[in-house]
């Protein structure tokens, strides 16, 4: 793996960008609701989206409602809850749902089971459940075992480990499948995907990006199947600025392409 201080030269019109949010575009905080994407970074993302005809999407474990709140005023294509929900560039939303009775049953069970671990927090995302133990690290293995037991009992569920969290999500969905779906659609199709992420859930995204001859970038330490690495969130900000600048310079050198790009106006 190489340090991604600079990517190979970007060709105009040829890249699609996918970003994880927590730990990639925003510093991780003790509580998920304290997380913010700095205004300058949101501005830069909007600029990047304009430079590549809107081929910029957020791919996160958070719900799409939260992603919209954190990225505002941007209104980007999104994959939320590790790909269980997705919004394409036209605004069409696709969701993988669990049966409401199952959601109710699991919610009740998890509320009760987690109540014996002080500091643990259950986040119910509609079609997925996040068992957070950042404030209860001494109970991590018991909580992971609880999630494992539950997934073993239900065919339609799978486990998604993360940083201080273990999630129970519908089987068959991943950040990889979300990126693959975007890559079949305009304006992503035909471009080379670039994906930046920091956590275990991002590995499925790195796999598909590697398969598609794209650029996979792991943020921070830890083993990864990504090709390149950036040290931390601050390095992502620097990379984003550098990449946007580089794309803009390339486009400025192509007057025809530039004229075409200016017609792109989706209010991103
Ligand atoms: Mg992350």
Could you give a quick summary of the protein structure above?
With 268 residues, the chain is an alpha/beta fold. It has helices at 39-51, 64-71, 100-114, 140-153, 175-182, 203-211, 233-252, 255-262, and strands at 2-3, 15-19, 56-59, 78-80, 85-87, 93-95, 121-124, 129-132, 157-162, 165-170, 192-197, 215-219, 228-230. The protein is globular.
What does this structure look like?
Removes the phosphate from trehalose 6-phosphate to produce free trehalose. One of its GO terms (biological process) is trehalose biosynthetic process. Pathway: Glycan biosynthesis; trehalose biosynthesis. The longest helix is centred in the last third of the chain and has 20 residues, at 233-252. The protein has two domains: 9-95 and 173-262, 3-Layer(aba) Sandwich (Rossmann fold); 100-170, Alpha-Beta Plaits. The chain has helices at residues 39-51, 64-71, 100-114, 140-153, 175-182, 203-211, 233-252, 255-262; strands spanning 2-3, 15-19, 56-59, 78-80, 85-87, 93-95, 121-124, 129-132, 157-162, 165-170, 192-197, 215-219, 228-230. The protein has 268 residues and is an alpha/beta fold. It is globular. The protein contains eight helices and 13 strands. The strands form two sheets. It has a nine-stranded mixed sheet, sandwiched between helices. Strands 7-8-10-9 form a four-stranded antiparallel sheet, covered by helices on one side. The two termini are 33 Å apart. Helix 1 runs parallel beside helix 7 and helix 5 (175-182) runs parallel beside helix 6 (203-211). Bound molecules: magnesium ion. Magnesium ion is lined by residues 20, 22-24, 197-199.
């Amino acid at each position: 793996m190489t340090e991604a201080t600079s990517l190979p030269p970007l060709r105009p019109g040829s890249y699609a960008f996918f970003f994880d949010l927590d730990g990639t575009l925003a510093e991780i905080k003790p509580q998920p609701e304290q997380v913010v994407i700095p205004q300058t970074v949101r501005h830069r993302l909007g600029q990047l989206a304009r430079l590549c005809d809107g081929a910029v999407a957020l791919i996160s474990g958070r719900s799409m409602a939260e992603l919209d709140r954190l990225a505002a005023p941007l209104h980007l294509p999104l994959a939320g809850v590790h790909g269980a929900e997705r919004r394409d560039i036209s605004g069409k939303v696709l969701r993988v749902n669990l049966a409401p009775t199952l959601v109710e049953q699991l919610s009740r069970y998890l509320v009760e089971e987690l109540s014996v671990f002080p500091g643990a927090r259950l986040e119910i995302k509609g079609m997925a459940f996040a068992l957070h133990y950042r404030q209860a690290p001494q109970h991590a293995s018991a909580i992971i075992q609880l999630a494992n037991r539950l997934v073993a009992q239900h065919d339609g569920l799978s486990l998604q480990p993360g940083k201080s969290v273990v999630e129970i999500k519908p089987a068959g969905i991943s950040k990889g499948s979300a990126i693959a779906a975007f890559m079949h659609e305009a304006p992503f199709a035909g471009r080379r995907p670039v994906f930046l992420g920091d956590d275990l859930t991002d590995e499925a995204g790195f796999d598909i990006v590697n398969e598609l001859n794209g650029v996979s970038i792991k943020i921070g330490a830890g083993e990864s199947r990504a090709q390149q690495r950036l040290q931390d969130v601050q390095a992502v900000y620097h990379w984003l600025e550098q990449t946007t600048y580089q794309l803009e310079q390339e486009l400025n050198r192509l007057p025809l392409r530039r004229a075409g790009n200016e017609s792109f106006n989706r209010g991103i």
